Amino acid sequence: MRSLIAGVVVLFAASFASAGIVDMPLDTLSPAGYVTTPPFVNVGVETEGPRTFIKVTSLNGQGSTIQAPKIDFEIFTGSTVDATASGATLDFDIRYFQTGNGENGEQPYDDTHSKLDVLLYSSNNEVYTWTDAFNNPQPFGEWHSLSLDLSDTAGNAAFDLSQVSYMELRGFNNRFVGADHISLDNLTITPEPGTAALLALVSIGVCRRRRVSK
Asked: Mind listing the pLDDT tens digit for each residue in 120-163?
């Protein structure tokens, strides 16, 4: 019986971890409009080995300021996202690839043009920014996993964490190298595992009480 309950706890924990929380594989551009870029910047889907992901190219198409991509949770999920669960994090895989020298001799992965900010917006258009969230990590040009603590948004008192709308990457690309690109994969917003497990235990307790009452 205990092993059965333990198994149910795991199933409930998994269910609560995903219920009402963002799970975006980023392996498609459907539904239309959930991933967008400014004019002259391109976004597409590519497959490399086991990964299928979105890739943003032509970064030099917007001058020296990168403002791409924008990922809209409302379009993808059909509503804003309630990310108030304890310990909730915004997680995704990212690769920022640079190659060759810039127009003025800028080297790949120089600190001045290989950092990216992550901006999160609520439905009232308030924003919280993780400055240099992607901060030129090594190995250069490889996939890295970011995990951002959503409780940080308390740094903006007007930010409504129960109504998360979209996120965006920003940075600089004053190298003007057309081959530079940003790739993203596996975006999620999840509560801490302990919260999901606690919810599962509470639910199991409610079910047992209901059975006893019958």
From this structure: 999 999 999 999 999 999 999 999 999 999 999 999 999 999 99
Find, among 108, 128, 110, 126, the residue nearest to 118 by Cα: 128
CA 15 to chain centroid, in Å, comes to 20
Torsion of CA 104, 108, 111, 113, to 10 degrees: 60
Please give, one letter per residue, the 3-state secondary structure of the chain: CHHHHHHHHHHHHHHHHHCCCCEECCCCCCCCCCEECCCCCEEEEEEECCEEEEEEECHHHHCCEEEEEEEEHHHHHCCCECCCCCCCEEEEEEEEECCCCCCCCCCCCCHHHCEEEEEEEECCCCEEEEEEEEECCCCCCCCEEEEEEHHHHHHCCCCCCCCEEEEEEEEECCCCCCCCEEEEEEEEEECCHHHHHHHHHHHHHHHHHHHHHC
Query: Which residues in the chain land under pLDDT 70?
Result: 1-20, 194-214
